[in-house]
Design goal:
By secondary structure, the protein is α/β, with parallel strands linked by helices. The chain is 39% helix and 25% strand. It binds adenosine-5'-diphosphate (ADP) and magnesium ion (MG). The site of adenosine-5'-diphosphate has 14 residues, from strand 13.
Amino acid sequence: MGKRIVIALGGNALGKTISEQAEVVKGTAKAVAGLVRAGHQVVISHGNGPQVGMIQKAMTALHKQDPEHYELCPLSVCTAMSQGYIGLDLQRALRNELEKCGISKSITTILTQVEVNPNDDAFKNPSKPIGAYVTEAEAEVLRKERGFEFAEDAGRGIRRVVPSPKPQQILELESIRKMVEDGQIVIACGGGGVPVVKEEDGYFGTEAIIDKDFASEKLAEELNADYLIILTAVEKVAIFYGTPRQKWLEHMSVREAEFYIEDGQFAPGSMLPKVEAAVAFAKSGHGRKALITLLEKAEEGIEGRTGTEISMV
Ligand code: ADP
Ligand code: MG
């Protein structure tokens, strides 16, 4: 029986440059098409680290070069731009791949806004580094003029840091839901979605980045999906990762996963958000399961032959 699956694509599904992405998405489309051919209803979300980084750096350079004509581009606009061109490449690659298999489906990218809570603790503690490295003098100017915050990034220099609040509500959810129910393929919540906050006079973009693993989890929950599949650069989740005691896991119950999280087994910023998202999804409804596996192993994973599955028991 076909399942409803939200697939969260990681950095390795998209590559790091414009030409690399155009090439890499062909393989990504194969993996996704495999699930469509198997009769599953798929909804795609994706990360955007290198892409939004490129756009933000380009827009910042343009502003520096000609501040009179080009103002500094808000981060929410950079995220929206990245959803556009990543969606374009995914739409095209997936259409080509499905047509090869004789499947004709409408594939659409939804520019997605995700509401965050302005009182989220993340706003008090910006943690996500973005953009180019800057000198202390440059940072000082931007602190004063724009209220930006900066931090040392893993000993490599100073970078701007922005908050990474939790997703609360997907504004375009009803459009996504209708298209999915109609059997169409939707790409949504790219880069975690464009973060917005609701103020007295309406919604506004905010200088933040939502984690794509958490946004994908929210999307899967809201769409009443059976599966949340997080595709990344490792086939399974490990405990004691990168040590001589490393052990690959085929399955984690929610309780086990929560124990390992407490125990610090998963790296913050990479595997931790995935396991947290998987746990949240498995807990959110009866029979819901999450799977973390390698992009190329999506189909084998859903058949229960590889990857790390996270379920209530
Ligand atoms: P993505 O772009 O898919 O979100 P990330 O780099 O953010 O990818 O996260 C995936 C990476 O997490 C893996 O490639 C792996 O190097 C790393 N990782 C950290 N801790 C673990 C762990 N305990 N088990 C497996 N992989 C881990
Ligand atoms: Mg990641």
